[in-house]
């Protein structure tokens, strides 16, 4: 089992047509040419050019010459045998979809070799979409694995994110093969990636702190504001290891922490002032902390100990020269999330599951901020904190998927941008915080407590103001018998009610009045006069009438239910949730702070979800190209193994089950309550959105034969769109193999009522959109079929377990029908789905077994 060993020496890749040989290379980084340094792209991950010896240059030149010769001979053979294919592949109409399709269907080695090299000519983003197909072909088709091996390994040596995606997909798709076959080249590739044989060279263009020549504001400066202000602070705080810092914080209480921390930093500063050679401190003055990857109790579970990009005299190193594992931090972060999901099903009630989840999230926060990120969010960022109090368990009978809200900060370079200094969850600290210690060092005195509070209020006043204003507004808008009368008659006592409620409000605004700055008496008198006039103009009866109108129309907020804690969390508008979490976060003051969310799922095979996601993305592009006005929202999927992964949540959306359970209304009445009266513009827009999304998902459910369409798997967003989730049962897979749902798709009478009835224009518009969408999909069927055909080859997925699935999918495009015949067929499908007995039976089954509303 030699391939399980880690390869220490790098070898020169030799073309498959020549005998393989390995020549060890000794890279001399000290002789890197200065002009090569200046040519490195700023903030870009790439392989750094290094100075090579004459022998190495000769070897590489020989390999390049052999490669060019092989390519030329392949093109000549292809021009003789398949001139038409060569013209197609070299034409501008040849897309990535065509290349992938021919690579899979062609059996000739010459064509496969040509297409394997052709992959380098296309944008990486387009080929990343077909990465599951490439990995599946690599596992199950040996001839293709040989020709695409160079492309995959080259990409792995250029990108950490691509290496992670390949490792996770290989692990997921190899799991089925390992049950029936011996390890092959795919297993060797997996271990080579995990052992970082193709570890990329991480490079970064050095920048000077507070460099006035920069004409734009860098995200690096946003991510750690202290770096912008003081260079010495960064040196002093980075010199302390995280182990010593956590030990000091845990041992010292109150104001005793201030002097000891200051003295410690002063000592550290003296050590850092020693001469530094080649950007590295002497080992006797700088101890490398112990590697604790995966240990959540260490405080550095996601830290790989790489310190290559630390600031030294205002500059950062150009490249990472250490052997720190680059893939391990993100892998350990994902493993920690998955392990929590595996523990939760054994907790008895949902309330206790949520409490257990919050405790586990707090443990993870001990190890943050860290250089980890959420892979399906493509912008570069660092995870700094998990809003653990917002984490909640979602609805599931047998498993316990949960949603987690993650605080991130945007950055320029994941590996080189500085991390924010670790902050305590308590925003108002009585003791000296780490970010203020350097101020004491520079001034050699301890600032007063009032100065500390003043400096804190300067950066946090906005957050405090927003919290108080929100609390005040919620208090004023609340239903209180002491404030608003219950009759329409306005009496003298009623007129005095606002003045009688003033003492109760003082408890909310007392903080503002006690800590406010000096206010001009004239300005205060003017404000009081305006307030008095406004009280005379607006009568309590008018206010009560307006509140009644607001209560009967507008968004409905769900109350927290112990049996379904996720309903209230998902119904809260995202912008308000983001603002609320930011105001309570110790990192909320950072200008590049953002909030993202992820659903962690264990025990389910998300490879079905990934296949459905790819299919919907292509359909969305087709409908956009053909100008079909339908709506579909593909959901990002991160497959981590054959039974776990992450799902991107749909913001501002709740399930139909949660709507009917919490609002106690029919769907049409819910639309009237949520979006206004029937003639209002908002209501009409929401109905149009509902129809367009219903048509899109009707086509998707028909083509992919999606099952398990109960009301818990259908969402409704705040604009009226219907969004289907959970594609675990599609094509040949059905829940419990019962086959209840035999209708083409789900359309119920409640859906038709929202459209306005069977005779309404919107119902006719719904059927027209289905016809237009099917015609467009049939026109571009060649872009959709390879996605499913390639994944079926050698697959053990449940959706491919019965019969020839791709043949049935091809038949559902109805290539033998004219447009008129297809229109008639759409009418029949809609009618049969609307009157389907099996749909009603399955909804009833879910109601009695899982409590899901019908």
The low-confidence runs, each spanning 5 or more residues with pLDDT under 50, are: 1-66, 207-217, 221-243, 249-286, 427-536
**What level of helicity do the residues show?**
40-55%
CATH class assignment of the domain at 652-850: Mainly Alpha
**Strand count, sense and closure of the main sheet?**
6 strands, antiparallel
- CATH homologous superfamily (4th level) name of the domain at 652-850: Phosphatidylinositol 3-/4-kinase, catalytic domain
Question: What is the straight-line distance between the termini?
Answer: 56 Å
Q: Structural class given helices, strands, pairing?
A: mainly alpha
Radius of gyration: 31 Å
CATH architecture of the domain at 652-850: Orthogonal Bundle
Which term fits the overall shape?
globular
What does it look like?
With 854 residues, this protein is mainly alpha-helical. Among the domains are: 69-195, no CATH class; 290-401 and 411-420, no CATH class; 652-850, Phosphatidylinositol 3-/4-kinase, catalytic domain (Phosphatidylinositol 3-kinase Catalytic Subunit, Chain A, Domain 5, Orthogonal Bundle). Helices cover 51% and strands 5% of the residues. Strand 5 and strand 6 form a beta hairpin. Strands 1, 2, 3, 4, 5 and 6 form a six-stranded antiparallel beta sheet that branches. A three-stranded antiparallel beta sheet has the order 7-8-9. The chain contains 36 helices and nine strands. Keywords: Coiled coil, Kinase, Transferase. Residues 572-838 form the PI3K/PI4K catalytic domain. One of its GO terms (molecular function) is 1-phosphatidylinositol 4-kinase activity. It is a peripheral membrane protein. Residues 487-506 are annotated as: Disordered.
């Amino acid at each position: 089992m030699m391939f399980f060993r880690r390869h220490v020496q790098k070898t020169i890749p030799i073309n498959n047509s020549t005998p393989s040989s390995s020549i060890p290379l000794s890279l001399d980084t000290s002789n890197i040419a200065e002009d090569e340094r200046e040519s490195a792209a700023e903030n870009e991950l790439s392989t750094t050019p290094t100075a090579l010896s004459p022998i190495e240059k000769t070897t590489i030149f020989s390999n390049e010459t052999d490669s060019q010769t092989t390519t030329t001979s392949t093109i000549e053979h292809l021009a003789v045998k398949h001139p038409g294919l060569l013209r197609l592949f070299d034409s501008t109409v040849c897309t990535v979809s065509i290349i992938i399709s021919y690579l899979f269907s062609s059996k000739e080695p010459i064509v496969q070799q040509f297409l394997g090299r052709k992959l380098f000519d296309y944008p990486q983003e387009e080929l990343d979409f077909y990465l599951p197909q490439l990995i599946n072909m690599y596992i199950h088709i040996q001839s293709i694995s040989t020709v695409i091996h160079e492309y995959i390994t080259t990409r792995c040596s250029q990108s950490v994110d691509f290496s992670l995606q390949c490792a996770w997909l290989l692990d997921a798709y190899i799991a089925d093969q390992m049950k029936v076959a011996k390890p092959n080249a795919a297993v060797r590739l997996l271990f080579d990636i995990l052992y970082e044989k193709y570890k990329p060279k991480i490079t970064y263009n050095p920048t000077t702190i507070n460099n006035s020549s920069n004409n734009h504001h860098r995200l690096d400066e946003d991510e750690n504001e202290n770096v912008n202000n003081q260079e010495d602070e960064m040196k002093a705080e980075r010199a302390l290891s995280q182990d010593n810092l956590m030990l000091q914080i845990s041992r010292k209480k109150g104001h005793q922490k201030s002097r000891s921390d200051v003295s410690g930093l002063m000592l550290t500063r003296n050590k850092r002032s020693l001469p530094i050679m080649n950007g590295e401190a002497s080992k006797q003055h700088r101890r490398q902390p112990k590697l604790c990857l995966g240990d959540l109790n260490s405080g550095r579970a996601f830290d790989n100990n790489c310190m290559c990009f630390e600031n030294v005299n205002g500059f950062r190193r150009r490249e990472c020269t250490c052997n720190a594992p680059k893939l391990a931090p993100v892998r350990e972060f994902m493993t920690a999330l998955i392990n929590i999901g595996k523990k939760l099903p054994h907790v008895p009630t949902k309330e206790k599951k949520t409490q257990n989840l919050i405790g586990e999230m707090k443990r993870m926060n001990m190890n943050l901020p860290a250089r980890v990120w959420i892979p399906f969010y493509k912008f570069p960022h660092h995870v700094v904190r998990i809003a653990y109090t917002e984490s909640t368990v979602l609805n599931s009978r047998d498993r316990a998927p949960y949603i987690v809200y993650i605080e991130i900060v945007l950055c320029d370079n994941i590996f080189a941008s500085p991390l924010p200094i670790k902050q305590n969850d308590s925003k108002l600290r009585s003791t000296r915080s780490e970010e203020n210690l350097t101020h004491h060092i520079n001034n050699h005195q301890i600032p007063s407590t009032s100065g500390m509070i003043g400096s804190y209020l300067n950066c946090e006043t906005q957050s405090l103001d927003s919290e108080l204003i929100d609390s005040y507004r919620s208090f004023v808008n609340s239903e209180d018998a002491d404030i608003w009368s219950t009759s329409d008659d306005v009496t003298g006592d009623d007129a005095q009610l606002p003045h009688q409620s003033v003492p109760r409000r003082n408890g909310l605004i007392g903080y503002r009045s006690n800590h406010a700055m000096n206010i001009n008496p004239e300005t205060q008198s003017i404000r009081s006069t305006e307030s008095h006039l406004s009280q005379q103009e607006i009568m309590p009866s008018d206010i009560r009438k307006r509140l009644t109108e607001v209560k009967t129309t507008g968004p409905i907020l769900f109350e927290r239910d112990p049996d379904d804690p996720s309903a209230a969390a998902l119904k809260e508008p995202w912008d308000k949730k983001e603002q609320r979490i930011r105001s309570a976060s110790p990192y909320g003051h950072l200008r590049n702070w953002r909030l993202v969310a992820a659903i962690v799922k264990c025990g389910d095979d998300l490879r079905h979800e990934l296949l459905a996601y790819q299919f919907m993305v292509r359909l969305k592009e087709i409908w956009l190209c053909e100008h079909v006005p339908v709506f579909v929202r593909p959901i990002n999927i991160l497959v981590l193994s054959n039974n776990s992964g992450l799902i991107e949540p749909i913001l501002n959306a709740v399930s139909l089950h949660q709507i009917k359970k919490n609002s106690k209304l029919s769907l049409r009445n819910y639309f009237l309550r949520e979006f206004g009266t029937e003639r209002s513009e908002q209501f009409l827009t929401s109905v149009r959105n509902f129809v367009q999304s219903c048509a899109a998902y009707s086509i998707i459910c028909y083509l992919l034969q999606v099952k398990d369409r109960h009301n818990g798997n259908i969402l409704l967003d705040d604009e009226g769109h219907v969004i289907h989730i959970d594609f675990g049962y599609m094509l040949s897979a059905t829940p419990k193999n019962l086959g209840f749902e035999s209708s083409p798709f789900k359309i119920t009478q409640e859906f038709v009522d929202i459209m306005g009835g069977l005779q309404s224009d919107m119902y006719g518009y719904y059927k027209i959109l289905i016809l237009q969408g099917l015609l467009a999909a049939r026109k571009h069927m060649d872009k959709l079929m390879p996605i499913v055909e390639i994944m079926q080859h050698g697959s053990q997925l449940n959706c491919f377990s019965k019969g020839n699935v791709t043949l049935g999918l091809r038949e559902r495009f109805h290539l033998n029908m004219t447009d008129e015949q297809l229109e008639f067929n759409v009418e029949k499908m809609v009618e049969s789905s609307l009157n389907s007995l099996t749909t009603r039976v399955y909804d009833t089954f879910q109601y009695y077994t899982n409590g899901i509303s019908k």
